[in-house]
Every structure is written in structure tokens, then in C-alpha cells.
Design brief:
Layout (H helix, E strand, L loop, with lengths): L4 H14 L11 H8 L3 H13 L3 E4 L3 E4 L4 E4 L2 H5 L11 H8 L4 E12 L2 H7 L6 E11 L2 E11 H4 L14 H7 L6 E9 L3 H7 L7 E9 L5 E10 L3 E4 L8
Parallel strand pairs: 3-10
Antiparallel strand pairs: 1-2, 4-5, 5-6, 6-9, 7-8, 8-9
Helix pairs in contact: 1-3, 2-3
């Protein structure tokens, strides 16, 4: 009996969630699904588009349509993990640590390190005068063969001058570990998260479809005195990153 594309999308979703199709495996072709459900291929195409937009399916050039890999789970504890000196893998940053814990081949690549001046927005977030000198670090976070996140970090130059944070190249263990080595002690952070469509540049760098959303996360880190140490903007492929805020108190 013929059925609508939304019903087909839900049946395929249920099959994926049951484990009938494993991550990375190919699902039946449009022709095969059209015969299975007794519908036109256009109906199947619309159903697949729903699941692709939701991040459950991706198009693979040589394989057709395959089940997407699960997103990298990013717990709020990922920052504490990389500042724990007892860990044997503390040379890894938060993204690399989270990927390693989940068996995902992940890496962080530095795109550029340069000097910038604080505009009104960054000045307000970092509690510095507008026009103050900042160190801008740009990075790409990879999951397998895909760029899953774009990160831009701004730090007051007067705080990080003469440290690895102000120099080109990757810092061992991530920014927080480098802060600790420089005598800057992160104590608290505030994080805000919103969803939007990507810019053209973001779409190209992360190879996103036209309707694929991104998550924009801003994190402001402060020391124990309330001094701002870093403003970090993360633009994440919403299909590849799962932000988890676990075990937070109900009341403070």
C-alpha cells in the first residue's frame, strides 16, 4: 500500500535506531525502497532528504546513501579531562580526548595564529577596552575525513605574550593546559549555544548541504578573580557534535 514520505522516513528512522542498518552501512537504493513501499521514487527521495537533514543519513559518492556515524559526545567535563595531570593521554585537547574515548579518529589542526584588535563585541566579552590587542587562534576539528567544528579563540595579548598560546602551531593538551602552564588558572566558564544556517564559507569548509544547520557555541573562560582569559567561538556541524551538560545542580 502506498504511503507518504514522512511515514517512510519514520519507518527508516526506526530501522536505523533498531540497528537494522549500522553506521557506515549502505541502505537500499531509491529504486529498491520505492518497490518495497509501493511508492514513486520521488516519494522515497523526499523521505531520504528528511533523514539527511536530520543527520541520520549521508550521501557517499561510491556507496550511495549510508547511515551517518554517530555524533561525538562532548560532555561538560571535557575541559576537566584535559587538565588532569594524572592522565596518560593529557597531550590531547578536549576534542581529541572526546574522540579518543569514543573510538573516533579525531584531530585538531591549527589554521592560523595572528594578532587582532577587540571590536565592541569581543571587548565586552573579554572585559578589555575596545581596540585592545588580542591573539586570535583559528582551528579545525576533524572527525575522520570531515571537518566537524571550526573554532576561533581570542585571548588578551597582555596575558599570553611570550607563551605558546601566542605562537604559531598547535599547543600541547589544548588551550586550557597551555593556560595552566603559563600560570593562568581557568576557574569558571559561561557557555551559550544557538542554532543557525551556516555561512557560505562554513558550508564549504565543513562540506554541508544547503539545509544543514550548525550550532554556534560561545564560551567565555575566567579565572578565580573573574578576569576573562579567553573568548571561544565554535561553529559545529550539528550532525557531528552532541553537547552534553550532565550532572548540573538543579539549584545553586
Amino acid at each position: 500500500m502506498a504511503t507518504g514520505y514522512r511515514a517512510i522516513a519514520e519507518m527508516l528512522r526506526a530501522a536505523i535506531e533498531r540497528g537494522d542498518f549500522q553506521p557506515g552501512s549502505r541502505i537500499p537504493t531509491e529504486h529498491e525502497l520505492a518497490e518495497q513501499y509501493g511508492v514513486a521514487r520521488e516519494t522515497v527521495r523526499r523521505a531520504l532528504a528528511v533523514l539527511k537533514a536530520g543527520g541520520l543519513l549521508v550521501s557517499a559518492t561510491s556507496q550511495g546513501t549510508v547511515v551517518a556515524e554517530p555524533p561525538v559526545r562532548l560532555s561538560v567535563t571535557r575541559y576537566a579531562d584535559v587538565t588532569d595531570g594524572s592522565r596518560s593521554d593529557n597531550h590531547l585537547g578536549p576534542w581529541e580526548t572526546a574522540c579518543a574515548q569514543q573510538g573516533v579518529p579525531g584531530r585538531a589542526e591549527v589554521v592560523g595564529v595572528n594578532r587582532a584588535t577587540a571590536d565592541a563585541s569581543l571587548a565586552a566579552q573579554l572585559d578589555v577596552p575596545e581596540g585592545a590587542e588580542l591573539v586570535h587562534r583559528a582551528r579545525e576539528m576533524w572527525a575522520g575525513d570531515d571537518v566537524a567544528q571550526l573554532q576561533d579563540s581570542w585571548l588578551p595579548a597582555e596575558l599570553v605574550e611570550g607563551t605558546p598560546l601566542a605562537e604559531p602551531g598547535k599547543v600541547v593538551g589544548g588551550v586550557y593546559a597551555a593556560m595552566l602552564s603559563a600560570g593562568l588558572v581557568p576557574a569558571t566558564f559561561t557557555e551559550s549555544l544557538s542554532a543557525r544556517l551556516p555561512t557560505r564559507e562554513e558550508q564549504q569548509r565543513m562540506r554541508l548541504g544547503d539545509a544543514a544547520p550548525v550550532l554556534e557555541v560561545w564560551r567565555i573562560t575566567r579565572d578565580g578573580s573573574g578576569r576573562s582569559l579567553e573568548a571561544l567561538r565554535t561553529v559545529a556541524d550539528a550532525r557531528r557534535s552532541l553537547f552534553v551538560y550532565d550532572d548540573l545542580p538543579v539549584r545553586t
